[in-house]
DNA sequence: CAGTAACGGAGAGCATCTCTCCGTTCGGAG
DNA sequence: CTCCGAACGGAGAGATGCTCTCCGTTACTG
């Protein structure tokens, strides 16, 4: 998405297109998928007209940015799948996935299903990622380190668990607060399970 | 808050005031703290004027509703504190607290600090509740059933963990999905701890 | 240098929200 | 039952914020 086909794109045009994508990424990370076009073009230091000439709609730009983010996480999941230690691969991926969502509110909104009316292409990338997480889960279960009764859905839910608690009950949110939550959950994910899970 | 001092309030006036509070409760539960006045008065089947004559502002009505909700949860925490089994008391409270927030989006927003510009009275009720949860945590730790390195903050973060995942990655959200997440977390909270938590 | 692709940003047009104002209704005391 | 004023309903003022279009201006490139 970020890479363009080597057409006769004018140099300034290309520069501003890349600036727009980067600006959209940071605006969406901070304010979520409904970050305003005004916010995006101010960060990019371009006019609104430029955004609409290049992308046609705000939705198309948002989709580009989301797909970029999902593709990056996909590479992490794929790398984890060839890690020698299935438990370390799973837990490392879980920390990274959570951190990515904490750093990018838009991504967290997509993961938790709050996204509205996105192009089907985005959903496809989401499904690919879900499949990779499913493989990670099964591999760790076959290895015997992950409790047998969890599914990829449980993993994804745990990954977004710390999102809502960013600034909680007046607490000065520490850098490490989310790591504590994930660590507790990972302890609960270890085999053997201490108690039975309710059915899905 | 719901109960009025026995003044010479006209019967119809009292009826509509109670209807407004109940309507606000359900609107806030469904749409969060920024539920619109229009939504509230339609549920209550009264005019907007009635809302503003009785409560002065939307914010005052929202605060009333929030305080009611917090007070109810406070009674659960207080009851848990005199339960004979500290672990059962803690885990039972955690399930109930989470369920209450799932059933009331506004409450979840307040807990996770997304509330803006609420009267200080609401924050005071939040602090009272936090103190009660702190006592629940310490009691279970002294009893030896809860790992020693968690705090009330960890508990609150876990309680709001399932909120974001209501409808996740296209999954048809099951009634029990949140219970699975909480159960996994509780298994991770049991003493002895499998791994050390990062410092707060 | 000329031609034209790309640009900037004012503002149209729409949606939505809170709160006010005032003519109307109706509860309840005498 | 009558009557008075407390309580009511809801149109709409006024504010904000959003996406997207249009067109005069700028500046890249052959």
UniProtKB/TrEMBL annotation, chains A, B:
Location of the DNA-binding region in this protein: 36-55
Keywords of this entry: DNA-binding, Transcription, Transcription regulation
All copies of domain HTH tetR-type, residue ranges: 14-73
Highest taxon of the lineage: Bacteria
Gene3D superfamilies on file: Tetracycline Repressor, domain 2
InterPro entries: DNA-bd_HTH_TetR-type_CS, Homeodomain-like_sf, HTH-type_TetR-like_transc_reg, HTH_TetR, Tet_transcr_reg_TetR-rel_C_sf, TetR_SbtR-like_C
Record carries keyword Kinase: no
Pfam families in the cross-refs: TetR_C_43, TetR_N
Keyword Transcription regulation: yes
Entry-linked PANTHER family: HTH-TYPE TRANSCRIPTIONAL REGULATOR BETI, HTH-TYPE TRANSCRIPTIONAL REGULATOR RUTR
Protein name: TetR family transcriptional regulator
Source organism of this protein record: Actinoplanes palleronii
């Amino acid at each position: 998405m970020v890479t363009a086909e080597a057409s006769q794109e004018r140099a300034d045009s290309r520069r501003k297109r890349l600036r727009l994508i980067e600006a959209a990424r940071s605006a969406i990370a901070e304010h979520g998928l409904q970050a305003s076009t005004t916010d995006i073009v101010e960060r990019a230091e371009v006019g609104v007209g430029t955004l609409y000439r290049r992308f046609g709609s705000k939705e198309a730009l948002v989709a580009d940015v989301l797909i970029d983010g999902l593709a990056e996480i996909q590479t992490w999941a794929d790398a984890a799948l060839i890690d020698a230690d299935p438990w370390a691969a799973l837990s490392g991926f879980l920390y990274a996935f959570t951190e990515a969502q904490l750093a990018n509110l838009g991504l967290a909104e997509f993961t938790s299903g709050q996204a509205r009316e996105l192009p089907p292409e985005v959903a496809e990338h989401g499904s690919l990622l879900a499949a990779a997480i499913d493989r990670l889960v099964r591999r760790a279960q076959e290895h015997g380190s992950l409790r047998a009764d969890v599914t990829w859905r449980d993993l994804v839910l745990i990954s977004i668990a710390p999102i809502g608690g960013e600034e909680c009950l007046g607490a000065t949110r520490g850098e490490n607060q989310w790591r504590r939550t994930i660590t507790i959950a990972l302890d609960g994910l270890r085999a053997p399970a201490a108690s039975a899970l309710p059915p899905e």
